Amino acid sequence: MNSPKVVALNDTEHTIPTSFKRTVPLRGKSTKPREYLTKDEIGQLIDQTKKGRYAHRDATMITMAFRHGLRVSELVDMRWSDVDFSTARLHVRRAKGSNDGVHILQGDEMRALKRLKRESTQSPFMFISERGAPVSTDGFRKAMNRWGIKCGFDWSISPHCLRHACGYHLANNNMDTRSLQEWLGHKDITNTVRYTKLAANRFDNTNFNW
To answer: Which residues form the Tyr recombinase domain (predicted)?
Structure first.
C-alpha cells in the first residue's frame, strides 16, 4: 500500500472560474447551471448554518468538505483518531477505492475542531447528532439543499458541490494536476483533468487562500 502524502498550502487568493457550465435536468428544476459552488456561495451557506441549532458543527462540516474535497460519506465518517492535533494534520480516509492521504490543517480549522471536540460527547465520530450518533449522509444532503434554498440558489445543491468547489479552487491557485490528483485521492488522473491541465513543477509554489 502506498504511503499517504502530505500536502501543504499557503495563502494567496484567486478566484474560482465562472466559465464552466454543465446542464443537468433535475427533479422539479429545469436545469442545473453548474456542479460546483463558488467561495462566496460557500460563505453564504455557512452564514445560514449560524441560524441553526448546530451552527458550529454544521459550519465546520461545510468547511472541511470544501477544503479537503470530501465526499459526503467521507465527511460523516470522520473520526477524532483521524486528527493529529500536535502536528495539525488530518488523515483523509477516502471512499470508492480512492487513495487515502494526509492533509495539513489550517489554523482556523484547528480552532474549530478543538472547540467541537470540547463540546462533543465521547463518540469516536467527529460530527454527531443530538443522540450521539454520526450525522447521516441523507441528513447532511437534505440540510445542504435547505441551506441552498434559504440562500436563494435557484438550483438544487448537494454535498458533492463542495468537493467540486475544492477542485476548481485549487486549480485556480495553480496546483498542478498531479498534486490535485493526490489531494482529491483520484486513482485515475482522467478524473482530475476536469479541473486543470497538467502543469509540472508547481506543487511547492501553490498559492492558496481559504
So the answer is: 32-208
Q: Are 117 and 79 in contact (CB under 8 A)?
A: no
Which amino acid makes up residue 94? R
Residue with the larger pLDDT of the pair 176 and 47: 47
Please name which of 169, 191, 166, 165 lies closest in space to residue 178, comparing C-alpha atoms: 191
Q: Maximum CA pair distance of the chain?
A: 49
pTM listed for this prediction: 0.79
Does the pLDDT of residue 43 top 70, yes or no? yes
> Is it the case that residue 129 has pLDDT exceeding 50?
yes
Residue the block writes with cell 498531479:
178
Which is more confidently placed, 17 or 169? 169
147-156, 179-188, 201-210: lowest mean pLDDT where?
201-210
* 3-state secondary structure labels for all residues of the chain: CCCCCEECCCCCCCCCCCCCCCCCCECCECCCCCCCCCHHHHHHHHHHHCCCCCHHHHHHHHHHHHHHCCCHHHHHCCEHHHEECCCCEEEECCCCCCCCEEEECCHHHHHHHHHHHHHCCCCCECCECCCCCECCHHHHHHHHHHHHHHHCCCCCCCCHHHHHHHHHHHHCCCCCHHHHHHHHCCCCHHHCCCCCCCCCCCHHHCCCCC
Closest among 17, 8, 50 to 164, alpha carbons compared: 17
